[in-house]
Amino acid sequence: MSETLIKARDFSVGFKIGSGFFGKQVLKAVDHVDLDIEKGSFFGLVGESGSGKTTLGRALLKAVPITGGSASYADGEVDYDLTTLAGPELKDYRKRAQLIFQDPYAALSPRMTVRDIIAEPLEVMGLTKTREETDARVRQIAAKCRLNLEHLRRFPHAFSGGQRQRISIARALVSGPKFVVADESVAALDVSIQADVLNLLKELQRDLKITFLFISHDLSVVAHTCDHVAVMYLGRLVESAPTRELFKAPRHPYTKALFSAIPSLDPDDRGRAQKLIGEIPSPTNQPSGCKFHTRCPHAVDRCKKDEPMLEHPGDGHEVACHRWRELLESAAA
Amino acid sequence: MTALIEVKNLTIQFRTDEGLVTAVDDVSFSIDKGQVMGLVGESGSGKSVTAKALMNLNARNAVYGPESRITLHTEAGPVEVLKLKTARDLKIVRGGAISKIFQEPMASFAPAITIGDQMVEQLRLHADMSKAKAKEISVEMLDRVGISDPSRRFGQYAFELSGGMRQRAMIAMALSTKPKLLIADEPTTALDVTIQAQVIDLMKDLVNEFHMGIIFITHDLGVIAQTADKVAVKYLGRIVEEGPVREVIRNPKHPYTQGLLAALPKLDDLDAPLTPVAGDIPSPLERPTGCVFHTRCPKIVGDVCKTALPHDSRVDASHRVACHIHAEVPA
């Protein structure tokens, strides 16, 4: 039986914005999300910009305040309640949970050598006592990320995008985290290099037993790397399933639309996609009922009034849609 | 079919503190009326510099090779783009017969001027028309690209529009002068997949309607497969393979094109391993000798790759590749 590393229930993150006539408005970036991330898994989180995927990732790292619900982290050594975590325990959590950023050009200080960049977390967290010890840890993780000693002496500007991303990864992993949030970590890379970084992340997951939360808008990348995928729309989790199951038989109309919007590599397969109309609504002015009803081709009156809850049909394939069973049957018929 | 624009032996270098840097090396291609050409390659392959040259837009430190020629065929006869000097003459390639849409629609609109004023301004620069007429055409174009409530949007600023809407407004603006050639530089890269699909559809409709030529610059082969008629694959400033989009994607001949396709995650086969193209793209300051791709090529045939520049070989009438593997045996 596999263990759960991250368990979130009714998890919400809201930001207070502006001060209107009726007092402060709250932007619900993440809205009552239930999430279980299994230990050692490669968990994918997909959605369009504005869906709240980045905010969810950061809130799990305690980088933005959690405003509602519960979340816990249990790696076998420690058991933390993320909503109340503070003081020395929070400091300890920082070693266990790390973030890899999207843009390898912006994330590395141009005035530090690669060695210093990778060593910085060790020094800040006080994980090593002597310089020799620090150097040893840096060399060890650098080798894992396929960086050699020569690289460590140089400055980031001397590296290409793929190499920079490997430096960011080494920096995130040097403190020995158990849980790593990779936020659009390959989005800024060329296709030819992207595959290399993805393979590296998978290797690290296996070798170092790290649990990844992989946030991406690129479904084909997610399909190839993740074990389990959750789809977000306007702060809500609309579908969650093992990768193969999700790609074989998506249940939510939004997931189906996302899949069909991926440009096919087959030139003869043009224009067969079922296109979504319009754009994701503004999070400050969210639709009533099911948040997807404004763009959903199958919306009925009920969708405008009642918000569907995430259903757990028992096969591990969760979906939040009033009509998914009905649509499944009509598709089979 | 008549060629709309012909590029011959285009070589572009930039004067920098570290010496001359080659961005585009001996590139030739042509685009017909109503044809969509995809230009693919990774960052540093010189895609954008090539596109800028078509509008003579490269910075002052650009040095064009002596044999470089770009000929635009207009109703009034051929125009040598690289020989244009004055702002007055350049108008024909900058918004007149050639328009461009950029990757970042937010950065391409002036933030403090309304969308409408910017559209009217450029229309009046290129065509002799009254303000009222220019406004009428602009609103009509906004409507045409699927922006709802166009007369209200006309008076709004770029920040008031969502990402997809901004990109549509950008396309409306580029097309309002009825260009013969549209350069689309990564027009969908900053967009979400669902919006990307809408923009691709829109561009296909517009090609059918206005019958213009399009250069579609992207690193996404999926987008190319969905839009282009023919495709040119660039690496380090050189075109390594060119041909009809079906041919190049189904039957790639150059090891680099093959590598790009293998590196792409495919949805119909989740078990297929992702194969990266080994190594990194070399710095333009350290251009490899011989074939520019030999430092990363898995199929090197011998020293010839390191010393001699491969010439174009014909796969068939419309498909060419520059690789020693396919070098024609001299008769």
Automatic annotation (TrEMBL), chain A:
Record Pfam families: ABC_tran (PF00005), oligo_HPY (PF08352)
Domain annotation ABC transporter: ranges: 6-259
GO MF entry, a single one: ATP binding
NCBIfam families: oligo_HPY
Protein name per UniProt: ATP-binding cassette domain-containing protein
Membrane topology: Peripheral membrane protein
Cell location: Cell inner membrane
Keywords associated with the record: ATP-binding, Nucleotide-binding, Transport
PANTHER family registered for this protein in UniProt: TRANSPORT ATP-BINDING PROTEIN
InterPro entries: AAA+_ATPase, ABC_transp_ATP-bind, ABC_transporter-like_ATP-bd, ABC_transporter-like_CS, Oligopep_ABC_C, P-loop_NTPase
Automatic annotation (TrEMBL), chain B:
Keyword Transmembrane helix attributed: no
Signal peptide: none
Residue intervals of the ABC transporter domain: 5-261
InterPro entries xref list: AAA+_ATPase, ABC_Ni/Peptide_Import, ABC_transporter-like_ATP-bd, ABC_transporter-like_CS, Oligopep_ABC_C, P-loop_NTPase
MF terms (GO), sorted A to Z: ATP binding
Family assignment from sequence similarity: Belongs to the ABC transporter superfamily.
Name used for this protein in its record: ABC transporter ATP-binding protein
Source organism per UniProt: Defluviimonas salinarum
